[in-house]
Amino acid sequence: MKSYKITLLPGDGIGPEITNVTQEVLELLSKKFDFQLKLKKMPFGGAAIESDGIPFPDKTLQECKNSDAVLLAAIGDPKYDQLPREKRPETGLLNLRSSLDLFANIRPVKIIPSLTKASSLKEEFVNEVDLVVVRELTSGIYFGEPKGRLKTESGERAFNTMAYTSEEVKRIAEIAFKLAKQRNQKVCSVDKANVLDVSQLWREETILVAKNFKEIDLTHQYVDNAAMQLVRNPSQFDVILTSNLFGDILSDIAAMLTGSIGMLPSASLTNDGPGVFEPVHGSAPDIAGKDIANPIAMLLSAAMMLKIAFNETYAGNHLENVIHEILTEGYRTSDLMSSGEGKEVGCSQMGELLLGKLK
Length: 359
Ligand code: IPM
Ligand code: MN
Hints:
By secondary structure, the chain is of the alpha/beta class.
């Protein structure tokens, strides 16, 4: 029997609640589709600060490296905001990304038909949305040097550096083009080449990579325009290729098209080694422990893991289909209730509904 080793990182806030639901669902799927899962929970983020004094202990890194995939819920809590930057949960997440060289962050945004009313845009604008944000994840302004804070005569000066090498642009662009090949053959590269040198290089390298993908239609948008286009006419997009910071911002905008950021999964991949699968949303400390969180983004991340990391396509598709069925039947967590329609359920109740259908 096939066997897969998964490191589970429940993290903070709503993380443990949505992890419990996801774990039960995965265990049931493994029985139904005849594969074995070895799940191991490890401390990460604020939870690791509590247990080990640091957000990303070495034992957690070693477990991640030795597994077939990592499934992460969410990290962060305002109570850590005053800690020095290297001790904060977010730094743990950035270290996880760079330690595993997870340069390719894939964030699919597909409208679920039964949820078009939950979108903050009018239905006719979101009906056809099916796009993927390909975000560079281990470089750019998140990691650029020099960075820091300096005391000056007139106060402080703080700075970060947005830098890319041609190799870094090339490898993420190749991921986007390969993905577009399996989809609608369109890549829109998003930059700020009218102002930034780093974007000028980004654009030039993207055009070079496109020469090896003649069938793909490559366009370019400045990031301010792309932000506007995402709320003006989001169905124009197929694959959006962009840098770390722009991808962070644009994927939150894109997430809202689906009605709630609680719906959006992601995969962070490298060329050779385990990927990290995680919801796009954060740890939502304001609703933690109330059993009202939406577990769907994490479940859809688990479905991505089954398909991308393990090639368990049937199991992944089955999970996605069952999620769509439950939503079609009208069950919604509170984040999706804005339209006032539907039957409101909590996090664990959503889990039970899914387990009932998955069998
Ligand atoms: C994301 C998050 C992270 C990011 C934070 C938590 C560091 O917003 O994955 O989009 O900025 O990349
Ligand atoms: Mn983000």
